Amino acid sequence: MLVAVAVQADAAPALQQSAETVTPELDRARADRGRPAGCPIRGPVDGPLTCVHGNPDGAPTVVVYGDSKAMQHFPALDAIAQRRNWRLVVISRAGCPPMVVHYAYRCDRWRERALRRIARLDPALIVTSSSVAYQVIARGKRLSRPASRPILRRAWIRTLRRIRGEDRRVAVLVNPPRAPADPPSCVRDNMASLARCAFQRGSAPYRNYVVRGARRAGVARVDINQIACPGRICPAVIGDVLVYRDRVHLTATYVRTLTDWIDARLPEPRAG
User: Fold this and answer.
1) What is the pLDDT of residues 90-138, one digit of tens each?
2) Pick from 25, 57, 120, 172: CA 20 to 30 A from residue 212's CA?
Protein backbone atom coordinates (compact mmCIF):
# COMPACT_ATOMS: atom_id res chain seq x y z
CA MET A 1 0.00 0.00 0.00
CA LEU A 2 2.68 2.50 0.94
CA VAL A 3 4.77 1.72 -2.13
CA ALA A 4 1.69 2.27 -4.31
CA VAL A 5 1.34 5.74 -2.83
CA ALA A 6 4.83 6.66 -4.04
CA VAL A 7 4.22 5.29 -7.52
CA GLN A 8 0.97 7.22 -7.78
CA ALA A 9 2.68 10.41 -6.63
CA ASP A 10 5.44 9.99 -9.23
CA ALA A 11 3.01 9.39 -12.06
CA ALA A 12 0.18 11.79 -11.21
CA PRO A 13 1.11 15.27 -10.01
CA ALA A 14 -2.49 16.27 -9.26
CA LEU A 15 -2.80 17.51 -5.69
CA GLN A 16 -4.85 15.57 -3.18
CA GLN A 17 -7.66 17.93 -2.27
CA SER A 18 -8.96 16.44 0.99
CA ALA A 19 -8.55 13.62 3.47
CA GLU A 20 -10.58 12.15 6.30
CA THR A 21 -7.48 10.92 8.11
CA VAL A 22 -3.75 11.01 7.47
CA THR A 23 -0.83 8.83 8.51
CA PRO A 24 0.97 9.39 10.83
CA GLU A 25 -1.64 10.90 13.11
CA LEU A 26 -1.15 14.65 13.28
CA ASP A 27 -0.56 14.74 17.03
CA ARG A 28 2.26 12.20 16.56
CA ALA A 29 3.79 13.66 13.42
CA ARG A 30 6.81 15.28 15.07
CA ALA A 31 7.80 11.99 16.66
CA ASP A 32 7.64 10.15 13.31
CA ARG A 33 11.38 10.35 12.75
CA GLY A 34 13.71 8.32 10.59
CA ARG A 35 16.00 7.58 13.51
CA PRO A 36 17.95 4.30 13.57
CA ALA A 37 17.50 2.39 16.81
CA GLY A 38 20.58 2.44 19.01
CA CYS A 39 22.56 4.87 16.88
CA PRO A 40 24.74 7.47 18.67
CA ILE A 41 23.44 10.56 16.87
CA ARG A 42 23.78 12.70 20.00
CA GLY A 43 25.81 12.57 23.18
CA PRO A 44 29.54 12.67 23.96
CA VAL A 45 31.77 13.28 20.97
CA ASP A 46 34.20 10.61 22.16
CA GLY A 47 31.48 7.98 22.52
CA PRO A 48 30.46 5.30 19.98
CA LEU A 49 30.60 6.55 16.40
CA THR A 50 28.66 4.03 14.32
CA CYS A 51 25.88 1.48 14.40
CA VAL A 52 25.03 -1.30 11.96
CA HIS A 53 21.67 -2.03 10.33
CA GLY A 54 20.45 -3.79 7.22
CA ASN A 55 22.07 -7.21 7.41
CA PRO A 56 24.91 -6.91 9.98
CA ASP A 57 26.62 -9.94 8.43
CA GLY A 58 25.88 -8.94 4.85
CA ALA A 59 28.01 -7.56 2.06
CA PRO A 60 28.90 -5.14 0.65
CA THR A 61 29.27 -2.44 3.30
CA VAL A 62 27.24 0.70 2.59
CA VAL A 63 27.61 3.85 4.72
CA VAL A 64 24.96 6.47 5.47
CA TYR A 65 26.77 9.67 6.42
CA GLY A 66 25.37 13.05 7.43
CA ASP A 67 23.10 14.96 9.77
CA SER A 68 19.35 14.71 10.39
CA LYS A 69 18.66 15.50 6.73
CA ALA A 70 20.46 12.29 5.83
CA MET A 71 18.91 10.30 8.67
CA GLN A 72 15.37 11.17 7.62
CA HIS A 73 15.87 8.71 4.74
CA PHE A 74 16.95 5.86 7.01
CA PRO A 75 13.61 3.94 6.91
CA ALA A 76 13.91 3.51 3.14
CA LEU A 77 17.68 2.88 3.17
CA ASP A 78 17.39 0.23 5.89
CA ALA A 79 14.65 -1.58 3.95
CA ILE A 80 16.79 -1.45 0.80
CA ALA A 81 19.80 -2.77 2.72
CA GLN A 82 17.80 -5.69 4.10
CA ARG A 83 16.43 -6.44 0.65
CA ARG A 84 19.88 -6.33 -0.96
CA ASN A 85 21.79 -8.00 1.89
CA TRP A 86 23.88 -4.88 2.54
CA ARG A 87 25.69 -4.21 5.78
CA LEU A 88 24.43 -0.67 6.46
CA VAL A 89 26.76 1.38 8.67
CA VAL A 90 25.22 4.60 10.00
CA ILE A 91 27.55 7.51 10.79
CA SER A 92 25.42 10.47 11.78
CA ARG A 93 25.39 13.49 14.06
CA ALA A 94 22.27 15.60 14.46
CA GLY A 95 22.97 19.30 14.01
CA CYS A 96 26.51 18.83 12.67
CA PRO A 97 27.52 19.64 9.10
CA PRO A 98 29.13 16.64 7.39
CA MET A 99 31.21 18.94 5.17
CA VAL A 100 34.60 20.04 6.51
CA VAL A 101 34.00 23.51 7.94
CA HIS A 102 34.69 25.10 11.32
CA TYR A 103 31.35 24.99 13.12
CA ALA A 104 31.60 23.78 16.71
CA TYR A 105 34.13 21.70 18.63
CA ARG A 106 31.81 18.73 19.08
CA CYS A 107 30.92 18.72 15.38
CA ASP A 108 34.45 19.28 14.12
CA ARG A 109 35.77 16.46 16.30
CA TRP A 110 32.92 14.11 15.32
CA ARG A 111 33.43 14.84 11.62
CA GLU A 112 37.14 14.05 11.61
CA ARG A 113 36.50 10.81 13.46
CA ALA A 114 33.71 10.02 10.99
CA LEU A 115 35.82 10.68 7.90
CA ARG A 116 38.67 8.57 9.24
CA ARG A 117 36.22 5.75 9.96
CA ILE A 118 34.83 5.94 6.43
CA ALA A 119 38.35 5.69 5.04
CA ARG A 120 39.03 2.59 7.16
CA LEU A 121 35.72 0.97 6.23
CA ASP A 122 36.29 1.69 2.53
CA PRO A 123 32.58 1.14 1.78
CA ALA A 124 31.29 0.13 -1.62
CA LEU A 125 28.70 2.94 -1.52
CA ILE A 126 28.22 6.07 0.58
CA VAL A 127 24.80 7.75 0.77
CA THR A 128 24.93 11.27 2.14
CA SER A 129 22.94 14.46 2.59
CA SER A 130 23.08 17.60 4.68
CA SER A 131 21.21 20.66 5.81
CA VAL A 132 22.68 23.92 4.58
CA ALA A 133 21.30 26.15 7.32
CA TYR A 134 24.62 26.17 9.17
CA GLN A 135 26.42 29.33 10.25
CA VAL A 136 30.12 28.58 10.10
CA ILE A 137 32.97 30.21 11.98
CA ALA A 138 35.57 32.11 9.96
CA ARG A 139 38.42 34.14 11.47
CA GLY A 140 36.91 33.63 14.91
CA LYS A 141 33.49 35.03 13.97
CA ARG A 142 30.15 33.27 13.50
CA LEU A 143 28.95 34.20 10.03
CA SER A 144 25.39 34.76 8.85
CA ARG A 145 23.69 32.09 6.79
CA PRO A 146 24.11 34.01 3.50
CA ALA A 147 27.79 34.61 4.26
CA SER A 148 28.23 30.93 5.17
CA ARG A 149 26.83 29.58 1.90
CA PRO A 150 29.90 30.00 -0.33
CA ILE A 151 32.08 28.45 2.37
CA LEU A 152 29.68 25.53 2.76
CA ARG A 153 29.46 25.12 -1.01
CA ARG A 154 33.22 24.81 -1.44
CA ALA A 155 33.50 22.55 1.60
CA TRP A 156 30.71 20.34 0.27
CA ILE A 157 32.60 19.71 -2.98
CA ARG A 158 35.86 19.00 -1.15
CA THR A 159 34.17 16.62 1.28
CA LEU A 160 32.36 14.71 -1.45
CA ARG A 161 35.66 14.27 -3.29
CA ARG A 162 37.32 13.12 -0.09
CA ILE A 163 34.77 10.43 0.70
CA ARG A 164 34.64 9.34 -2.93
CA GLY A 165 38.36 8.60 -2.84
CA GLU A 166 39.74 6.68 -5.78
CA ASP A 167 36.82 4.43 -6.63
CA ARG A 168 34.02 4.59 -4.05
CA ARG A 169 30.45 5.14 -5.23
CA VAL A 170 28.72 8.14 -3.61
CA ALA A 171 25.07 9.21 -3.86
CA VAL A 172 23.78 12.57 -2.64
CA LEU A 173 20.13 12.68 -1.56
CA VAL A 174 18.72 16.05 -2.63
CA ASN A 175 16.06 17.01 -0.08
CA PRO A 176 12.78 18.87 -0.65
CA PRO A 177 12.74 22.55 0.37
CA ARG A 178 11.83 24.09 3.69
CA ALA A 179 8.07 24.52 4.03
CA PRO A 180 6.90 28.12 4.50
CA ALA A 181 4.62 27.10 7.39
CA ASP A 182 4.31 24.08 9.68
CA PRO A 183 2.71 21.36 7.51
CA PRO A 184 1.12 19.26 10.30
CA SER A 185 -0.57 22.38 11.71
CA CYS A 186 -1.74 23.45 8.27
CA VAL A 187 -3.16 20.00 7.51
CA ARG A 188 -4.98 19.92 10.84
CA ASP A 189 -6.75 23.16 9.92
CA ASN A 190 -7.40 22.27 6.27
CA MET A 191 -8.37 18.61 5.98
CA ALA A 192 -11.10 19.57 3.49
CA SER A 193 -8.84 21.88 1.45
CA LEU A 194 -5.34 20.40 1.47
CA ALA A 195 -4.21 22.46 -1.49
CA ARG A 196 -3.88 25.38 0.93
CA CYS A 197 -0.96 23.56 2.52
CA ALA A 198 0.93 22.97 -0.73
CA PHE A 199 3.70 25.35 -1.82
CA GLN A 200 5.89 26.09 -4.81
CA ARG A 201 9.28 24.43 -4.79
CA GLY A 202 10.95 27.49 -6.25
CA SER A 203 14.70 27.83 -6.74
CA ALA A 204 16.38 27.34 -3.37
CA PRO A 205 20.07 28.07 -2.70
CA TYR A 206 20.22 24.66 -1.02
CA ARG A 207 19.13 22.75 -4.09
CA ASN A 208 21.39 24.74 -6.37
CA TYR A 209 24.60 24.20 -4.46
CA VAL A 210 23.89 20.64 -3.38
CA VAL A 211 23.13 19.59 -6.94
CA ARG A 212 25.99 21.57 -8.51
CA GLY A 213 28.40 20.43 -5.81
CA ALA A 214 27.53 16.79 -6.42
CA ARG A 215 27.98 17.31 -10.15
CA ARG A 216 31.36 18.98 -9.72
CA ALA A 217 32.51 16.25 -7.35
CA GLY A 218 31.52 13.61 -9.88
CA VAL A 219 29.02 11.77 -7.66
CA ALA A 220 25.46 10.58 -8.22
CA ARG A 221 22.35 12.52 -7.22
CA VAL A 222 18.99 11.14 -6.09
CA ASP A 223 16.61 14.11 -6.23
CA ILE A 224 13.75 13.52 -3.80
CA ASN A 225 12.07 16.65 -5.18
CA GLN A 226 11.08 14.70 -8.27
CA ILE A 227 8.61 12.69 -6.25
CA ALA A 228 7.90 14.82 -3.17
CA CYS A 229 7.27 17.95 -5.26
CA PRO A 230 5.77 16.71 -8.54
CA GLY A 231 5.25 19.48 -11.06
CA ARG A 232 7.29 21.80 -8.79
CA ILE A 233 4.43 21.80 -6.24
CA CYS A 234 5.18 20.35 -2.80
CA PRO A 235 2.02 18.83 -1.27
CA ALA A 236 1.62 18.39 2.46
CA VAL A 237 -0.25 15.10 1.94
CA ILE A 238 0.23 12.44 -0.75
CA GLY A 239 -2.06 9.42 -0.75
CA ASP A 240 -3.28 10.17 2.80
CA VAL A 241 0.33 10.19 4.00
CA LEU A 242 1.71 13.31 5.70
CA VAL A 243 4.89 14.32 3.87
CA TYR A 244 6.57 16.66 6.41
CA ARG A 245 6.85 16.13 10.17
CA ASP A 246 8.02 19.73 10.63
CA ARG A 247 9.09 22.51 8.28
CA VAL A 248 12.35 20.85 7.26
CA HIS A 249 12.07 17.06 7.78
CA LEU A 250 10.03 14.33 6.12
CA THR A 251 7.97 11.88 8.14
CA ALA A 252 9.38 8.38 8.46
CA THR A 253 6.03 7.08 7.20
CA TYR A 254 6.32 9.04 3.97
CA VAL A 255 9.97 8.04 3.47
CA ARG A 256 8.95 4.36 3.68
CA THR A 257 6.71 4.92 0.66
CA LEU A 258 9.81 5.95 -1.30
CA THR A 259 11.71 2.69 -0.74
CA ASP A 260 11.31 1.28 -4.25
CA TRP A 261 11.73 4.71 -5.85
CA ILE A 262 15.04 5.38 -4.08
CA ASP A 263 16.23 1.81 -4.62
CA ALA A 264 15.78 2.17 -8.37
CA ARG A 265 17.89 5.36 -8.42
CA LEU A 266 20.80 4.54 -6.13
CA PRO A 267 24.03 3.63 -7.92
CA GLU A 268 25.14 0.05 -7.65
CA PRO A 269 27.80 -0.43 -4.94
CA ARG A 270 31.34 -0.89 -6.16
CA ALA A 271 32.06 -4.49 -7.05
CA GLY A 272 34.73 -6.50 -5.26
Assistant:
1) 999 989 999 999 998 899 999 999 999 999 999 999 999 998 889 999 9
2) 120
Q: What is the pTM of this model?
A: 0.91
Report d(CA 72, CA 164) in Å as an integer.
22
State the amino acid at position 61 in one-letter form.
Answer: T
What CA–CA distance (Å, rounded) separates 173 from 69? 9
Domains of the chain: 2-262 (3.40.50.1110)
Q: pLDDT tens for residues 210-255?
A: 788 899 999 999 999 999 998 889 999 999 999 999 999 999 999 9
As a whole number of Å, the end-to-end CA separation of the chain is 36
Torsion 121-122-127-129 (CA) sign: positive
Sequence-distant (6+) residues with CB within 8 A of 98 are 65, 66, 67, 70, 111, 114, 128, 130, 159
Other beta carbons within 10 angstroms of residue 120's beta carbon come to: 8
Pairing between β-strand 61-66 and β-strand 87-92 as defined by DSSP bridges: parallel
Neighbours of 16 (CB within 10 A): 19
